[in-house]
Design goal:
Chain lengths: ~200, ~280
């Protein structure tokens, strides 16, 4: 019956990891209730998968944590701080989307380096880190490719590298592996933790 | 496809091309021929009409004014319309219809009605602000909205604006960065098309300028036509050629971006290998 997986990974090796608490989140779209009072506490460093049939509200929950959507009621607390009203770009939440989301005018490594550029990391370190991340997802040889020159699975791997590169407090993966083959999937499952 | 069918198609193409080529070139050729005639039937060909263009200060001024208006209008249109349309698409989708309606409205209002409404504004403007012909840029900005709106709309529809901006924002980009670094670079050809369309509209505009008593390129051509037909035709040919060149540029940049991206990929690749 459960058909889809979304995972909320918390904490990366570079940081200690933080607690994420969803308190009584409620979200309706017109007549559809996507979330009806979701309560969930994720311990620092914990990796949580949300399972459920299509349309049950997994994406909605992740979007609320990322700040891409506002809850009708309830709170999102990250590391003890209420971030419910904070805009996405201040939240330090990495996200890999269900839809393809690479910036089409940038190469793979430029995509991965974008978040670091937003954080004012200097060029040399940006380059190095983007290279490391691409290596992690097994795409070192594809650094200068554009999204339209990559397969669907490769694009999602670059998107994963891009989200990992900024070492976010919270990492949200919305079915990022659904396009990947089993071998690559097995290899990638370890990467959110080991980076 | 069989050989004979392909051949037929080829012949058909050539015929269409020739018919349309003649349709466009014959009048222009005739105009050029007319503009190089001498004063009498037996006089040799002369380019004096073309030379007179540059010796007629009023005409040169009108040409420069129209060019300046074209630049100001396209720049103003981009600055006004691009952020508005992106913003509406991302944050206020409910206003989409309203913006579309407002932008298409000028198409449905005849120029003469526009002028009737604008005449008092322009009287006020010329007394209190400036008499310069460049104030026409305000009307022209309104005039180009329908064409540019359509173009920019198509450009925006071709990219997944929502997902791209959400991805950029989750990576720490503010709204200005999202617009300037993520969305605009992915709609270059739409921006260019919109700008060139406004240039074409402005360079061809006659009615409003004439009715508001400003001498822009087309008005100057019309005025000159009465005094010196040869020169007025020469200017008309020149402005047609100018528009033609712009359109060629447009079609060059309007080609699928994949090939442009491929070129870029090849250049960055060689550069990337060094490091
Ligand atoms: N922008 C929206 N407008 C209206 N309804 C929406 C919107 N986004 C989501 N919904 C509805 O909310 C419900 C939950 O959607 P959500 O995307 O969270 O599902 P999901 O669990 O991620 O499904 P899937 O596994 O198919 O991705 C669905 O019924 C969906 O139709
Ligand atoms: Mg989903």
């Amino acid at each position: 019956m459960p058909t889809a997986v979304a995972a909320a990974g918390v904490g990366t090796a570079a940081r200690a990891g933080v607690e994420v608490r969803l308190e009584n989140l409620r979200r309706r779209y017109g007549g559809v209730t996507a979330l009806d009072g979701l309560n969930l506490t994720m311990a620092p460093g914990e990796l949580v998968a949300l399972l459920g049939p299509s349309g049950c509200g997994k994406t909605t929950a992740l979007r609320l944590v990322a700040g891409l959507e506002q809850a009708d009621s309830g709170r999102v607390v990250v590391a003890g701080e209420d971030v419910t009203g904070q805009p996405t770009n201040k939240r330090d939440v990495g996200m890999v989307f269900q839809a393809y989301s690479l910036f089409p005018h940038m190469t793979a490594w430029q995509n991965v380096a974008f978040g670091l550029q937003m954080r004012k990391v200097d060029t040399a370190r940006r380059r190095k880190r983007a290279g490391d991340m691409l290596e992690l997802v097994g795409l070192s040889g594809f650094a200068n490719r554009f999204a339209h020159q990559l397969s669907g699975g490769q694009q999602q791997r670059v998107a994963l590298a891009r989200a990992l590169a900024i070492e976010p407090k919270v990492l949200l993966l919305d079915e990022p592996l659904s396009a990947l083959d089993a071998k690559v999937r097995a290899r990638l499952r370890g990467s959110p933790r080991s980076s | 496809m069989s050989r004979s069918r392909r051949l037929k198609l080829q012949v058909f193409r050539v015929i269409v091309f020739l018919v349309f080529g003649a349709f466009f070139l014959v009048p222009i050729g005739a105009m050029f021929e007319f503009s190089t005639r001498g004063n009498t039937d037996t006089a040799p060909r002369t380019l004096s009409a073309w030379q007179t263009i540059f010796q007629t200060p009023d005409l040169v001024a009108a040409i420069l004014a129209s060019l300046a208006l074209a630049v100001i209008t396209s720049a103003g249109m981009l600055v006004l319309l691009v952020p508005t349309m992106i913003w509406v698409r991302l944050r206020l989708p409910r206003l989409n219809r309203v913006v579309e309606f407002l932008c298409l409205l000028p198409l449905t209002i005849p120029a003469i009605v526009l002028v009737a409404g604008l005449a008092p504004e322009y009287r006020w403007l010329s007394i209190n602000v400036s008499e310069s012909i460049l104030t026409l840029a305000f009307v022209y900005l309104v005039l180009v909205l329908p064409y540019t709106y359509r173009t920019l709309h198509a450009g925006l529809a071709a990219i997944d604006v929502k997902t791209l901006s959400e991805a950029a924002r989750s990576l720490g980009a503010g709204w200005a960065t999202v617009m300037g670094r993520i969305i605009v670079p992915n709609m270059w050809s739409a921006l260019l098309n919109a700008a060139l369309l406004s240039v074409a509209v402005v360079l061809g505009e006659f009615t409003i300028a004439n009715l508001l008593n400003y001498v822009n390129l087309q008005v100057a051509i019309a005025l000159l036509g009465r005094a010196n037909a040869g020169v007025s035709i020469a200017v008309a040919v020149a402005s047609l050629m100018f528009a033609f060149i712009l359109l060629v540029i447009l079609s060059f940049f309007g080609r699928p971006r994949a090939r442009v991206a491929q070129l870029e990929a090849d250049t960055t690749l060689s550069w990337g290998q060094k490091t």
